[in-house]
Amino acid sequence: MKTLFALFLSFAKVGVMTFGGGYAMIPILEREIVEDKGWAESEELMDYYAVGQCTPGIIAVNVATFIGRKLAGIPGGIAATLGMIFPSLVIICAIAGVLSNFSDLPAVKSAFAGIRVCVCVLIFNAVVKLWKNAVPDKGALLICLFVFILSVFLDISPIIFVVVCACAGILLTRLGVRGK
Amino acid sequence: MIFLKLYWEFFKTGLFAVGGGMATLPFLYSMSEKTGWFSAAQLADMIAVAESTPGPIGVNMATYVGFTTAGLPGALIATLGLATPCVVIILIIASVLDAFRKNKYVDAAFYGLRPCSVGLIAAAGMLVVKISLFNFELFSETSRFADFFNFKAIALAIVLIICTRYVKALKKLHPIVFIAASAFVGILFAF
Predict the structure, then answer these.
(1) ipTM of predicted complex
(2) CB-based contact (8 Å) between B68 and chain A?
(3) Cα B45 off chain centre by
(4) In this structure, are B99 and B172 located in the same domain?
(5) pLDDT along chain A (180 residues), means of 10
(6) Could A56 and B85 be called an inter-chain contact, meaning their C-beta atoms sit closer than 8 Å?
(7) B164 closest CA partner among A103, A108, A120
(8) Residues B85, B168: one domain?
(9) Given this model, what pLDDT does residue A172 score?
(10) Are A26 and A112 found together in one domain?
């Protein structure tokens, strides 16, 4: 029980201190999990990250589950995950509650119209950053363009794209198209 | 039953979103179109808040959407829905970690999944571009070509792209700085 609570607290701490999740979390996790608590080695953490990226879902939650499980089995995995999501729940609900009261003010509307422009640029930058790792050759380029165009013009669930592209990845690799 | 539906929608998102925070975005857009729980503009605002607050972006988005849809219990249920498949999948994989990492089918599937995720995020980004840089409604009313473009917004976008990508002193700054600056510009120039 003590370990579970310690896991919850540690990951809540990591959650509060991380802006942006994913990779922004690595240095903070290193300090808390590897240096302070000694719960995992640095290389282990990198392995968890690599697998966390190669599995569906939120990378931060995936890593939390890995470390929690290593320390205290399935309950540990759950405790670490709950710790990870706890700060988000509190902070976002507080902000959402406040914002919904002010969202009709003209100044707030203008502010969010400006912010939306910034969101476009942030998404654009995220796409450029992901592109470098995700599109190494012509086959991947084809998949990316195919998904982008169909998704812009047709109303297809992202789930279908994900399933089809996983199969396409296996097929292209088997056919030897990969890497060309 | 709204809570059950919320849980299920976010469970699916957690199960199929590959590649980190922004990867949940296409799923949330498809959710907004399908359920009408929130609008595309609201979703763009949620991205801004999720980026500017602590915690993983995907989790923040789920909490915000859940809260908007069904208050505090909604926030809790949406977030748990998102986290459930992650936890289950990792608990299974952790016991066969090495086999999973070295499996050639897993590797090949991800060769296809990574560009898919980029394409989906880019397409979702186009929806934000559509509502923030262009005036589709105004254009359909007036049919004047100049009304189609939101010039103030496009100018801000160009400045932001230059600042976040090309100006050395600025591009390392946290996104929250640019979000705050954009809010300020939005108020100052009455966007």
Answers:
(1) 0.84
(2) yes
(3) 10
(4) no
(5) 93 83 74 89 82 82 92 94 94 90 84 88 86 89 95 88 92 86
(6) yes
(7) A120
(8) no
(9) 93
(10) no
Whole-number pLDDT of residue B84: 95
Question: Is there a single domain that holds both residue A56 and residue A85?
Answer: yes
Residue A113 sits in which domain range? 104-133
How far apart are alpha carbons B23 and B61 in whole angstroms? Answer: 11
Same domain, B24 and B74: yes
Do B164 and B90 reside in the same domain of the chain?
no
Residues on chain A touching B126 (C-beta within 8 angstroms): 152
A window 15-44, beta carbon within 8 A of B: 15-22, 25
Count: domains in chain B: 2
Residues 170 through 189 of chain B touching chain A, CB cutoff 8 Å: 174-176, 178-179, 181-187, 189
Looking at the fold, whether A44 and A77 belong to one and the same domain comes out as yes
Mark which of B52, B85, B105 sits at the end of a domain: B105
User: Which residue stretches of A103-157 are H helix?
Assistant: 106-134, 138-153
